[in-house]
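Appendix B, Record 12. Input sequence as logged:
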Amino acid sequence: MSGIERWIDPRHLHPDSMERMASSFAGDPLNTIWLDDFLMPEPFANLQRVFATEGAFEQVHRLYERAADGRARDVTPEEWRDAEPGRRFHDEMRFAGPKPEHRLSPGMVTHVRFRMFLQSAAHLAFLHRLTGLCAGVAPFSLLRITRYGQRLDRHNDFNHGRTLCSVLYFGTGWQPTFGGRLRQYEGDALVRALDPLPNRLVLFRPTLEQHDVEPLGPAAAHWERWAMTTWYAPPGRVPGGG
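Logged structural output:
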Protein backbone atom coordinates (compact mmCIF):
# COMPACT_ATOMS: atom_id res chain seq x y z
CA MET A 1 0.00 0.00 0.00
CA SER A 2 2.10 2.90 -1.25
CA GLY A 3 0.02 4.88 -3.77
CA ILE A 4 -1.50 8.06 -2.40
CA GLU A 5 -4.93 7.03 -3.68
CA ARG A 6 -4.81 3.95 -1.44
CA TRP A 7 -4.56 6.15 1.63
CA ILE A 8 -6.36 9.44 0.92
CA ASP A 9 -9.99 9.62 -0.16
CA PRO A 10 -9.91 10.52 -3.88
CA ARG A 11 -12.30 13.44 -3.32
CA HIS A 12 -9.41 15.29 -1.72
CA LEU A 13 -7.06 14.51 -4.60
CA HIS A 14 -9.17 16.13 -7.30
CA PRO A 15 -7.47 19.28 -8.66
CA ASP A 16 -10.56 21.43 -8.00
CA SER A 17 -10.70 20.26 -4.39
CA MET A 18 -7.01 20.94 -3.84
CA GLU A 19 -7.35 24.39 -5.38
CA ARG A 20 -10.25 25.22 -3.04
CA MET A 21 -8.30 24.01 -0.02
CA ALA A 22 -5.22 25.98 -1.05
CA SER A 23 -7.31 29.13 -1.40
CA SER A 24 -8.90 28.55 2.00
CA PHE A 25 -5.53 27.97 3.67
CA ALA A 26 -4.00 31.11 2.16
CA GLY A 27 -7.01 33.23 3.11
CA ASP A 28 -7.50 31.93 6.63
CA PRO A 29 -6.17 34.29 9.34
CA LEU A 30 -4.54 31.34 11.11
CA ASN A 31 -3.58 29.44 7.94
CA THR A 32 -5.79 26.49 8.87
CA ILE A 33 -7.89 24.05 6.87
CA TRP A 34 -9.65 20.81 7.73
CA LEU A 35 -10.60 17.86 5.53
CA ASP A 36 -13.34 15.44 6.58
CA ASP A 37 -13.35 11.75 5.62
CA PHE A 38 -9.65 12.13 4.89
CA LEU A 39 -8.42 8.53 4.85
CA MET A 40 -9.86 5.63 2.93
CA PRO A 41 -12.06 3.37 5.11
CA GLU A 42 -9.74 0.36 5.36
CA PRO A 43 -6.56 2.10 6.57
CA PHE A 44 -8.61 4.33 8.85
CA ALA A 45 -10.27 1.34 10.52
CA ASN A 46 -6.92 -0.43 10.87
CA LEU A 47 -5.32 2.61 12.50
CA GLN A 48 -8.22 2.82 14.95
CA ARG A 49 -7.19 -0.64 16.15
CA VAL A 50 -3.90 0.81 17.42
CA PHE A 51 -5.81 3.08 19.80
CA ALA A 52 -8.46 0.53 20.73
CA THR A 53 -6.53 -2.69 21.35
CA GLU A 54 -3.15 -3.11 19.67
CA GLY A 55 -1.09 -0.20 20.98
CA ALA A 56 0.43 0.28 24.43
CA PHE A 57 -0.11 3.81 25.78
CA GLU A 58 1.67 5.37 28.74
CA GLN A 59 0.63 8.40 30.75
CA VAL A 60 2.88 11.42 30.17
CA HIS A 61 3.00 14.61 32.23
CA ARG A 62 4.77 17.76 31.02
CA LEU A 63 5.53 20.86 33.04
CA TYR A 64 6.76 24.25 31.96
CA GLU A 65 10.16 25.02 33.46
CA ARG A 66 8.56 28.13 34.93
CA ALA A 67 5.01 29.46 34.86
CA ALA A 68 4.25 30.93 31.41
CA ASP A 69 7.60 29.60 30.13
CA GLY A 70 7.46 28.05 26.65
CA ARG A 71 9.95 25.32 27.52
CA ALA A 72 8.47 22.11 28.88
CA ARG A 73 9.76 18.72 30.00
CA ASP A 74 8.38 15.35 30.97
CA VAL A 75 8.05 14.86 34.72
CA THR A 76 7.02 12.19 37.19
CA PRO A 77 3.43 11.94 38.46
CA GLU A 78 4.69 13.23 41.81
CA GLU A 79 6.26 16.33 40.25
CA TRP A 80 3.06 16.96 38.32
CA ARG A 81 0.92 16.62 41.44
CA ASP A 82 3.11 18.99 43.45
CA ALA A 83 3.56 21.66 40.74
CA GLU A 84 1.79 24.99 40.81
CA PRO A 85 -1.14 25.00 38.33
CA GLY A 86 0.48 27.63 36.09
CA ARG A 87 3.36 25.28 35.28
CA ARG A 88 1.17 22.38 34.11
CA PHE A 89 1.27 21.99 30.32
CA HIS A 90 -0.28 18.66 29.45
CA ASP A 91 -1.28 15.30 30.82
CA GLU A 92 -2.16 12.58 28.31
CA MET A 93 -1.70 8.99 27.22
CA ARG A 94 1.02 8.59 24.58
CA PHE A 95 1.75 5.67 22.26
CA ALA A 96 4.76 3.71 23.48
CA GLY A 97 4.76 0.84 20.98
CA PRO A 98 2.79 -2.26 20.06
CA LYS A 99 1.59 -4.68 22.66
CA PRO A 100 3.77 -7.82 22.33
CA GLU A 101 0.91 -9.94 21.05
CA HIS A 102 0.02 -7.36 18.38
CA ARG A 103 3.37 -6.62 16.74
CA LEU A 104 2.18 -8.01 13.41
CA SER A 105 -1.53 -7.29 13.79
CA PRO A 106 -3.33 -5.34 11.05
CA GLY A 107 -3.39 -2.07 12.97
CA MET A 108 0.31 -2.09 13.81
CA VAL A 109 1.35 -3.08 10.30
CA THR A 110 -0.82 -0.30 8.88
CA HIS A 111 0.68 2.16 11.37
CA VAL A 112 4.22 1.38 10.19
CA ARG A 113 3.18 1.72 6.56
CA PHE A 114 1.29 4.93 7.24
CA ARG A 115 4.35 6.48 8.88
CA MET A 116 6.30 5.61 5.74
CA PHE A 117 3.56 7.12 3.59
CA LEU A 118 3.74 10.38 5.55
CA GLN A 119 7.36 10.70 4.43
CA SER A 120 6.68 9.84 0.80
CA ALA A 121 7.25 12.34 -1.99
CA ALA A 122 3.63 12.00 -3.09
CA HIS A 123 2.24 12.90 0.33
CA LEU A 124 4.64 15.80 0.85
CA ALA A 125 3.75 17.15 -2.59
CA PHE A 126 0.06 16.90 -1.65
CA LEU A 127 0.68 18.96 1.50
CA HIS A 128 2.65 21.53 -0.49
CA ARG A 129 -0.20 21.81 -2.99
CA LEU A 130 -2.67 22.54 -0.19
CA THR A 131 -0.56 24.86 1.95
CA GLY A 132 2.25 26.24 -0.19
CA LEU A 133 4.62 25.24 2.61
CA CYS A 134 7.70 23.14 1.99
CA ALA A 135 7.60 20.07 4.23
CA GLY A 136 10.68 17.93 4.67
CA VAL A 137 10.89 14.16 4.66
CA ALA A 138 11.25 13.56 8.40
CA PRO A 139 7.87 14.11 10.07
CA PHE A 140 7.62 13.64 13.81
CA SER A 141 4.36 12.03 14.93
CA LEU A 142 2.64 11.22 18.20
CA LEU A 143 -0.38 9.02 18.81
CA ARG A 144 -2.24 10.54 21.75
CA ILE A 145 -5.21 9.63 23.92
CA THR A 146 -6.86 12.26 26.11
CA ARG A 147 -9.26 11.17 28.84
CA TYR A 148 -11.61 13.02 31.14
CA GLY A 149 -9.50 14.86 33.71
CA GLN A 150 -6.46 15.20 31.43
CA ARG A 151 -5.43 18.41 29.70
CA LEU A 152 -3.48 20.17 26.95
CA ASP A 153 -3.20 23.85 27.81
CA ARG A 154 -2.66 26.90 25.60
CA HIS A 155 0.61 26.94 23.68
CA ASN A 156 2.00 27.50 20.20
CA ASP A 157 3.91 25.11 17.94
CA PHE A 158 6.30 27.73 16.58
CA ASN A 159 9.39 26.06 18.06
CA HIS A 160 11.77 23.41 16.76
CA GLY A 161 11.81 24.48 13.10
CA ARG A 162 8.26 23.35 12.41
CA THR A 163 6.60 24.60 9.23
CA LEU A 164 3.34 22.61 9.30
CA CYS A 165 1.28 20.71 11.85
CA SER A 166 -1.44 18.15 11.22
CA VAL A 167 -3.94 16.55 13.60
CA LEU A 168 -5.89 13.48 12.47
CA TYR A 169 -8.74 12.25 14.67
CA PHE A 170 -9.69 8.60 15.15
CA GLY A 171 -12.19 8.50 18.02
CA THR A 172 -15.84 7.79 17.23
CA GLY A 173 -19.00 8.72 19.09
CA TRP A 174 -18.03 12.30 19.90
CA GLN A 175 -20.83 14.56 21.19
CA PRO A 176 -20.73 18.36 21.64
CA THR A 177 -21.18 17.98 25.41
CA PHE A 178 -17.91 16.00 25.58
CA GLY A 179 -15.60 18.95 24.86
CA GLY A 180 -12.20 18.09 23.39
CA ARG A 181 -12.32 20.61 20.54
CA LEU A 182 -9.14 22.10 19.11
CA ARG A 183 -9.39 25.79 20.01
CA GLN A 184 -7.40 28.46 18.16
CA TYR A 185 -6.78 31.99 19.41
CA GLU A 186 -5.63 35.37 18.14
CA GLY A 187 -4.23 37.01 21.23
CA ASP A 188 -6.83 36.33 23.91
CA ALA A 189 -9.71 36.06 21.43
CA LEU A 190 -11.05 32.62 20.56
CA VAL A 191 -11.18 32.36 16.75
CA ARG A 192 -12.62 28.86 16.31
CA ALA A 193 -13.18 25.53 18.00
CA LEU A 194 -12.86 22.51 15.72
CA ASP A 195 -14.80 19.36 16.59
CA PRO A 196 -12.64 16.19 16.90
CA LEU A 197 -14.71 14.26 14.37
CA PRO A 198 -13.49 10.83 13.27
CA ASN A 199 -11.31 10.89 10.15
CA ARG A 200 -11.02 14.68 10.20
CA LEU A 201 -7.58 16.06 9.28
CA VAL A 202 -6.65 19.55 10.48
CA LEU A 203 -3.67 21.31 8.90
CA PHE A 204 -2.26 24.55 10.29
CA ARG A 205 0.90 26.62 10.05
CA PRO A 206 2.67 26.96 13.40
CA THR A 207 2.84 30.61 14.43
CA LEU A 208 3.12 32.56 17.66
CA GLU A 209 -0.67 32.38 17.99
CA GLN A 210 -1.83 29.82 20.53
CA HIS A 211 -4.16 26.85 20.60
CA ASP A 212 -5.31 24.30 23.15
CA VAL A 213 -7.62 21.35 23.63
CA GLU A 214 -10.92 22.15 25.27
CA PRO A 215 -11.12 20.20 28.55
CA LEU A 216 -13.26 17.09 28.40
CA GLY A 217 -16.43 17.49 30.44
CA PRO A 218 -18.14 14.97 32.74
CA ALA A 219 -20.24 13.74 29.80
CA ALA A 220 -16.99 12.35 28.33
CA ALA A 221 -16.16 10.25 31.39
CA HIS A 222 -16.42 7.08 29.28
CA TRP A 223 -15.06 8.52 26.01
CA GLU A 224 -11.50 9.04 24.78
CA ARG A 225 -10.09 11.59 22.36
CA TRP A 226 -7.87 9.72 19.87
CA ALA A 227 -5.54 11.81 17.73
CA MET A 228 -2.37 11.59 15.68
CA THR A 229 -0.33 14.80 15.67
CA THR A 230 2.40 15.23 13.06
CA TRP A 231 4.89 18.07 12.69
CA TYR A 232 6.81 18.81 9.50
CA ALA A 233 10.00 20.81 9.01
CA PRO A 234 11.86 22.15 5.96
CA PRO A 235 14.12 19.68 4.13
CA GLY A 236 17.27 19.03 6.10
CA ARG A 237 15.73 19.76 9.50
CA VAL A 238 13.98 17.39 11.88
CA PRO A 239 10.94 18.81 13.69
CA GLY A 240 10.84 18.37 17.43
CA GLY A 241 7.76 17.06 19.19
CA GLY A 242 5.99 18.01 22.36
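Residues 177 and 187 are 26 Å apart (CA to CA).
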